[in-house]
Structure prediction request, 334 residues.
Amino acid sequence: MARVADIIQRESCFQPGSTLCMGCMESIAFQNIGKLTDNGKKTIFALGTFCGEVSTLQYPNPVAWGRGETTPEKWEKSFGVIHHVFESAPGVAEGIRDTADMLAKMGALSGPVQVAALSGDGGALSIGLRTLLMTIHRRVPITIFVLINEIFANTGFQFGPTTSPGSETSTTPVSELVDGNPATPLDYIGLTVAAGAGFVAQVSPAFPKFFMQTVEKALASSETAVVFIPAPCITGWKFGEGETVNLARLSCETGFFPCFVKEKGQKGQIKFVDLDPAKRPPIENFMGPQRRFHHLVKKDSKTDTFCMRPGKEAMMQKIRGWIQNHLDSLNQLT
Ligand SMILES: Cc1ncc(C[n+]2csc(CCOP(=O)(O)OP(=O)(O)O)c2C)c(N)n1
Ligand code: SF4
Prediction:
């Protein structure tokens, strides 16, 4: 395994020039994935339609992807990106993998190829869930990255299958009668393990060493590897500048988005979050800085700490219950 200090010296395939919001976690994740894929293989990414695509491939300014000034004949630096429809990134990546394998068998390639799919959680877990599960089921040796921002961001911040309970989105409004999203999220980690993925992880750039080591393993896996990356969305979650990494760290430590890794044949491991709720930071610390939870949590001006608004016990209890159930079920994945 490469040393993290060496990985950060590598050349990324994600360059300045995107129109992702300033403070978007996706940009930080892509820069790191870009360095991890600078590993001696030709890289091809299949992108679904999501913020990470519409904000990086916009004609006439498709400058964000590419490894520096490298010319295509330099195999190990060579980088390609294919954008296809919203829901199809894993299926397109599967096609690229098959084609590369066929060409390799014919002796038409001069080196190894690594293939990855990138999409949002709406693309992968809502409209594209069938594509994701069938690609996993076919045991295709690719890496599938899913950016989890809990909403359909680039089309107007609508609720999706990963939206936290109680969250205000453009389709789960808040009123005197409703406390935002009434649903609990899909257990996407359990689902991808059950579908047969050989490597499943949830990582965050807020824990850089774990991020680097886990993504490196995913890229080297001979099985289908699925990597979920919770991505605080400054515009949709409505938080202040400079809070992105802090919220990503808290999202794990409070149990909303636990870091996790499970390799084939091994028990799943939860990272950086305690199974005992008394040993975790209060969920209010994660929710308070985000205006999508304004109806549930406020800042106490006397103590300068975040606390529950009066009368919101039911929804806060629902959130705590969902977090605990989810952590317990991840802890039992074998
Ligand atoms: C079949 C189809 N339906 C709807 C759309 C419109 N559309 C494009 S991206 C998108 C939402 C993407 O959400 P997500 O995958 O979560 O990515 P995010 O925008 O949050 O990054 C939608 C609804 C489309 N392109 N194709
Ligand atoms: S809307 Fe959210 S996910 Fe999309 S670019 Fe902005 S911060 Fe990133």
User: Anything to note?
Assistant: The pocket of iron/sulfur cluster (ligand 2) is lined by residues 20-21, 24, 26, 51, 55, 149, 153-154, 233-236 (CB under 6 Å). The longest helix spans residues 313-331.
